[in-house]
Amino acid sequence: MNLRDLEYIVAVAKTQHFGKASQLCNVSQPTLSAQVKKLEDYLGVKIFERDNKNVMLTEYGRSIVAKAQEIVDAAERLKDTARNMQAPEQGQLKLGAFPTLAPFIFPLAVPVLRQSFPKMQIFLTEEKTENLIAQLKDGRLDTALLALPAEEDVFEYEILFEEPFYLALPPSHPLTQMEAVPLQMLAEEDLLLLEDGHCLSGQTMEVCSWVGAQKFNTFRATSIETLRQMVAAGLGVTLVPELAVPRQEQNDIIYRPLINTPPPSRSIGLFWRKTSPFKTLYRDIARQIGTAAGNRKTQKTLS
Amino acid sequence: MNLRDLEYIVAVAKTQHFGKASQLCNVSQPTLSAQVKKLEDYLGVKIFERDNKNVMLTEYGRSIVAKAQEIVDAAERLKDTARNMQAPEQGQLKLGAFPTLAPFIFPLAVPVLRQSFPKMQIFLTEEKTENLIAQLKDGRLDTALLALPAEEDVFEYEILFEEPFYLALPPSHPLTQMEAVPLQMLAEEDLLLLEDGHCLSGQTMEVCSWVGAQKFNTFRATSIETLRQMVAAGLGVTLVPELAVPRQEQNDIIYRPLINTPPPSRSIGLFWRKTSPFKTLYRDIARQIGTAAGNRKTQKTLS
DNA sequence: AAAATCGATAGATTTTAACTATCGTCTGTA
DNA sequence: TACAGACGATAGTTAAAATCTATCGATTTT
Questions:
Q1: A18 touches strand C (CB under 7 A)
Q2: Preceding peptide of A171 cis, ω within 30°
Q3: Alpha-carbon distance B64 to B264, whole Å?
Q4: Residue B267: beta bridge partners?
Q5: Cβ-Cβ contacts under 8 Å, A280 against chain B
Q6: What pLDDT, in 10s, does the model give residues B195-224?
Q7: pLDDT of residue A303
Q8: What domains are defined for chain A?
Q9: Which of A26, A140, A295, B14 is most buried, with most CB under 10 Å away?
Q10: Which nucleotide's C1' sits nearest to the alpha carbon of A55?
Q11: Which bases of chain C are contacted by protein, using any atom under 7 A from a CB?
Q12: Does the C-beta of A33 come within 7 A of strand C?
């Protein structure tokens, strides 16, 4: 049994067709037929039912092909890793971020990375934290931007920046009169949250528990943009991370800093596997993204 | 790149010696040397540093070998699965159970399984629930005995039995005067718990929260046997699952059933991957273990 | 009935993994 | 200092395998 054979059965399972599968694998159809047959004999299991018109997975075949797929994928990742090792800064970088950070940090990160490592191929993923962690563990991602605390025992990380939360208010709201809002004043507000699984909703609830705010609205939004629309519609108020605050003032939503000790904020870090051989590169990348985010902040303060 | 090559580098990494590695792989030393070199050329990465006396992994090699190991393991599991498919009841069964169940259920389960499937090779694992779930997911285990609720969405399961909790008391304790103890009476007792990570401690705390018992002792034991010793030493009382209650009365610890609606108990189920092709066999096994546990109960009631 | 489709089979060829024998280098010992 | 032993690399050969082209046989479509 070798990797090639596993690629063959994966291809046949995918195409349901020996001829097309053989093209996918760049071999002749008889080669593929022979190898599949040999593998079936070796394993002692019929993987495919060949009717003269259709190719179908047997029940056992389905589970064998699933395992084969995993093995082939893992082998592919091994090759990618090896290729990267020859010149890490010219290889691939698979970077993930969670949904309430991704749309704001990617536009900042990508330009600086492209400038520093022009040959690096950057793949971006937006996923909930839970999925990011799973993908980082099994190698589908090289690095991920996560809010602390995350699983610091499995991963290594470098903190990029501390991101304060801002209060988003409808223009009619009395709190817009203040330049900055003490956190305690949220105790009686209708707080809008994201649906479960978003780390922002957990962070918001944590911050609010400091001051005993509990009037959480039962409706749960699916994205920051939805939250904003709801705030604009006067359904309540919400916390927004700094990077999501527009640089220019808007008419429909007013943003105000929050005052508290400690200040309400989240820490963003770049995470990678402890075992990764590219730590040096990742640390470098972390600093660059951190700087880029810091610059944005400075610009805002100046404007 | 093929699986054999990956086995070679894993063997070299393990033995730190080309000669010994070649014996492990049943090939000649030159063959192994040549293939390793070829793989290194193909990947473009030096995996080993060959000093004339020592073989050492390079930094990159370490991470490549780790990935290779995973791939080789996965391939081995694929072969095992295939072998099992030819005659599931003559193949391997890798069964796990958590620590507060394993020592009591395995002695009941193994004899009936050996009788029903004489050719089956049974591998037993005792692990905390969290590890069982991880191992079940990635194929290191075929089945696991878990307390419900577990991750019912990833797995399929069959409930084996409902296992009531008994109260374990030192002989001097006033509650020993009662034939059966109403759960509410635990509210003022010193309750001894297992350390975190054991599902029994979670179950105990849940049961106790029904009646508002909160006097949990701060010390956390590492096994049921330790708990028993502590109870015997008069440090407090604890809950033990029925299978852990000795069939004959003991002098140092008295066991009493607990009365409540619903009765304090845990459900034990046999779990397997939804995608497993051996569901029929596993269901059969589940019923057999369930029956075996039921018989023990009957014997006890009769004695 | 003829043509087209599709997987299996046959036989030749190329590739490559494997073997044996031997080399070159370093190490420890006499 | 020289010699034996250990170890991985190299050379040359052989055996195994994967692959190719050509073709078959069964089924479906036109």
A1: yes
A2: no
A3: 51
A4: B162
A5: none
A6: 766 767 677 667 666 666 566 666 777 778
A7: 45
A8: 3-85 (1.10.10.10), 89-161+267-302 (3.40.190.10), 163-265 (3.40.190.10)
A9: A140
A10: C7
A11: 6-11, 17-22, 24-27
A12: yes
